[in-house]
Amino acid sequence: MILHQFIDYETLRVIWWLLIGVLLIGFAITDGFDLGTGTLLPFVAKTDMERRIVINTIGPVWEGNQVWLIVAGGAIFAAWPPLYAVSFSGFYLAMFIILASLILRPVGFKYRSKRDSDTWRAAWDCALFIGGFVPALIFGVAMGNVLQGVPFRFNNDLRIFYEGSFFGLLNPFALLCGLISVAMLVMHGGAWLALKTSGPVADRARRYGGIAALITIILFGLAGLWVWAGFGGYRITSPIDPTGASNPLMKTVVEESGAWFANYGSYPVLLLAPLFGFIGAAGAFIGLRARWEIATILSSALSIFGIISTVGVSMFPFILPSSLDPRSSLTVWDASSSHLTLFIMLVVTVIFIPLIVAYTSWVYHVLWGKVDEDTINDESGHAY
Amino acid sequence: MPLTGGRGDPVTVMELDIVALSRLQFAITALYHFLFVPLTLGLSVLLAIMETVYVMTGRVIWRQMTKFWGTLFGINFALGVATGIVMEFQFGMNWSYYSHYVGDIFGAPLAIEGLMAFFLEATFVGLFFFGWDKLSKVGHLAATWAVAAGSNFSALWILIANGWMQNPVGSAFNPQTMRMEVVDFYEVLFNPVAQAKFVHTVSAGYVTASIFVLGVSAWYALKGRHIEIAKRSMTVAASFGLASALSVVVLGDESGYLSGEHQKMKLAAIEAMWETEPAPAAFTVFGIPDTEARETHYAVRVPWVMGLIGTRSLTTEIPGIKELVDRARANIRSGLLAYDALQRIREAGSTTAVGQEVRDAFETNGGDLGYALLLKRYVDDPRQATDEQIEKAAWDTVPNVPTLFWSFRIMVGLGMFFILLTATFFILSIRRKIDAYPFLLRIAVFAIPLPWIAAELGWVVAESGRQPWTIEGILPTAAAVSNLGAASLLITIGGFVVIYTTLFIVEMGLMLKAIRKGPEPDFEPEAKLISPNIVPAE
Q1: B507 and B359, same structural domain?
Q2: Residues B246, B132 share a domain
């Protein structure tokens, strides 16, 4: 194969950094309202019928939405193997908790309404709440740890040694990030339920969604101040070869306060990312009040896009800094797959992502409209 | 790759337990996942076939059948998805050195599986259940076929990934990045091992679903319930099942032939064939493999058969285990030369900084580098290994012979039984006597769990036969694990077992409830025929 030489290694690495962002944001925006809806379930829906309405708003689509996460996992494996290896083995027990919670969702949706028993249904409601709240929280906690640097190092064979503990992950800054993540997804779930339901469920969703939007704004701002005042970022101090071999040990890195703000100084346009985070959440708050359903969910999606992008652009070119041995940090320039693999994966992605977006949009179009009591009864036997 | 512990301890017995625990965890999660996958693979296609008949003939009973089997499909699918989430992430969690070492090749089919298959399957499965009233007949049929295509594509990509583990083509080791990298993606895609495994595995899924549909329908026939639906379902299942069961055996044979080419040790271990025999070798139908004495007691042997299956010739020899161990010993010696050259290259910083003789030594012996890593179990620097350790490592290349020997024979025996069973019902359906013999119907009911046993044993043969390698000849399993503590592993193993078992019990309960309840009556008007010329037969 020589085709891959048409796109140079440096460009491919940047493209794949962006694409992982696209997949993670795709996950947070689509499956995000499922997680938010799961978290809101016990609060916005009191009766069994209300709960079924809430569950059936996401019933037909959550499965496809969750694939964004699966594909992001696979794409990180293919495009950034060291990131896949370090993060999932390092955050081992946290990953287990996320997986265990996510496992509850498919069965929760499918099995809950198959038996006419209050305890059975209450148990699955609880499972669906855990399946929404816990992953939302831990994804945020993980982000918080990544921003602070993670205690891992490589030996010369590039074998990974992680020297942190599970409880070390639950530090105050990381927990703050976890709360931002929960608030952001609850805002998004509220926006979704406002769009897909009516009556008391929609009223409650608007109320809780609005509160979550305000909390998102406050905590996101607080986290920014904390990074500014509280701890430093990381900076590469050796010459950078953006087309060099993917071996993280060939550079030197220092921890330096203010490093996570350096990119905004060089490229002020990047300030749009945090700005979108704030504006989107504010828009969602106003939209929920004013009952602009579509504008609300778009605003809330914009906020998610802004908040996740903020993490990415603040750290660039770092993707996983090491607090234990900074030179082991993974960066865009030394943690990717080979030139050829990145190229092949790009071709595949360019073919499939538009197809996926097209048929997913079509499915949403087919399922357009509010879910209410009549829908559930009409579809008896099929609705969850 | 010294197997030093997470906090710098030298190799201890504990460390080896980490390998055993990591393997146990993978086996548990994969085997659980594989309880749900074969039925999804096959039932999705059967649903699509049933709905196609409905759309073409317009007869409501076929829609009723599609919805009924669809309900059972959904209960099973939910657990397939639930257990599948873990599969995507546990390579990184428990096998981080593996993920680093081969992610450049192995990650790609996994990611493509998601993009091409999971999205399709998961997006349209929602429409399958929720779209009956929202889509036209043909539109809904398209959604059902999309689900079937999605699940089958996913089998294709995961088996391309797995095929590469069995037969690592199209890749080379890069000393600068200390990992395997893709050289020729075309070879990875069209790996003959992957292709044979794909057809073998999806066919096995079709057999599983066919026997399931056949057995459940036979139960209705015995009870005298839902007779019309049961008879039609049995007809579809018997014909589809027969074709698939034949395909499983043919492609299983192809897999056997390919192992003869690429994984000779696996083949010899399946046969418990310790010595090389003059061609064509005999097939051992029964025997008690003895790993201590390295021979097989009470062997009942059929002359020629093994030679024909393994080599498709009368003159090619199949090497026995002892000869293959001799070869492995030679590979280890050559691997040590490669390992030494690699260390020199890395000390010097690059391949250009060392002398020509070092480069040559790496070029010539580089393919055996993995064999040197087998010694990491015994010594930190393989170059320091004693002859005794080399001998042990050479014998480590023999997988667990009795496990393979028995798993294979039970699997093949079940495969033959499925051909017999589906053929019997196929003939009965042609004679319109499909529910005429309660004795046969009872056999069909009791056959329901058997395809699962065969499928799980097939996984055992394929993956335990690959040991001690994660990547055949490239990366030993013991070197592939993450540096985790035993406590973390025990927590997750316990956690997954508890969650999976609970959900499995719930799933079985709901399945049985749905089966007992039977198909929902369908009072909606008959759909319009595509063409007024197609008239229902009855």
Answers
A1: no
A2: yes
Domain that holds residue B299: 277-311
Query: B468 is written with which tokens?
Result: 């001690």
Asked if the Cβ–Cβ distance from A157 to B104 is below 8 Å, we say no
- How many other C-beta atoms are found inside a 10 Å radius of the C-beta of residue B494? 10
Q: How many angstroms separate the CA of residue B192 from the nearest CA in chain A?
A: 20
Whether residue B196 contacts residue B255, with contact meaning beta carbons closer than 8 Å, is answered with: yes
What average pLDDT does this structure show over B331-347? 87
Q: Which residue is closest to B87 within chain A, CA to CA?
A: A70
Establish if B528 belongs to a structural domain: no
Q: Assess if residue B9 is contained within a domain.
A: no
**Pairing between strand B469-471 and B475-476?**
antiparallel
pLDDT digits (tens, 9 = 90+) for A270-320: 999 999 999 999 999 999 999 898 999 999 999 999 999 999 999 989 999
Cβ–Cβ below 8 Å for B126 and A66: no
Task: Tell me whether residues B482 and A107 touch, CB distance under 8 A.
Answer: no
Q: Are residues B166 and B258 in the same domain?
A: yes
Cβ proximity of B398 and B266 under 8 Å: no
pLDDT, chain B, mean: 86
- Ordered mean pLDDT values, 10 residues apiece, chain A (384 residues): 79 94 92 93 90 88 87 93 93 93 87 85 92 94 93 89 88 94 95 91 93 95 90 88 88 88 91 95 93 92 96 93 92 93 93 92 85 72 62
Which of B15, B67, B95, B99 is the best mutation test for A, with the most CBs of A within 10 A?
B99
Query: Which 84-103 residues of chain B touch chain A by CB within 8 A?
Result: 84-86, 88-94, 96-97, 99-100, 103
Asked if A363 lies within 8 A of B127 by C-beta distance, the reply is yes
CA A384 to mean position of chain CA atoms: 26
User: Where exactly are the structural domains of chain A?
Assistant: 3-230+336-378
Of B362, B380, B396, the residue at which a domain comes to its end is B396
Best mutation target, A80, A150, A159, to test chain B (most B CBs within 10 A): A159
Q: Tell me: do B126 and B257 sit in the same domain.
A: yes
Quick one: tokens of A364? Answer: 């949403």
Evaluate whether B358 touches B344 at the Cβ level (below 8 Å).
Answer: yes
Instruction: Dig out the tokens for B392 from the structure.
Output: 């042990």
Per the structure, the count of domains in chain B is 3
Nearest to B482 by CA among A152, A65, A310, A123: A152
* Same domain, yes or no: B259 and B282: no
Closest chain B C-alpha to A321 CA, distance in angstroms: 17
B139 and B197 part of one domain: yes
Q: How far apart are CA A362 and CA A64, in angstroms?
A: 13
Task: State ipTM.
Answer: 0.89
DSSP H helical ranges for B263-355: 264-270, 305-311, 321-348
Measured between CA atoms, the residue of chain B closest to residue A78 is B107
B84 within some domain: yes
Q: Residue B292: inside a domain, yes or no?
A: yes
Residues of A in contact with B134 (CB under 8 A): 366-367
> Would you place residue B255 in the very low, low, confident or very high pLDDT band (cuts 50, 70, 90)?
confident
CB neighbour burial string for A286-312, b if at least 16 within 10 angstroms, e if fewer: ebbeeebbebbbbbbbbbbbbbbbbbb
Map residue A24 onto helix, strand or coil.
helix
Q: Does residue B94 share a domain with residue B188?
A: yes
pLDDT at B8: 40
B262 and B405 assigned to the same domain:
yes
- The answer to whether B89 contacts A161, with C-beta atoms less than 8 Å apart, is no
Query: pTM value?
Result: 0.89
What are the DSSP calls for B41-101, one per residue?
A: HHHHHHHHHHHHHHHHH--HHHHHHHHHHHHHHHHHHHHHHHHHHHHHHHHHHH-HHHHHH
The alpha carbon of residue B368 is apart from the nearest alpha carbon of chain A, in Å, by 17
Let me know: does B398 contact B321? Beta carbons within 8 Å: yes
Contacts of A248 in chain B (CB under 8 A): none
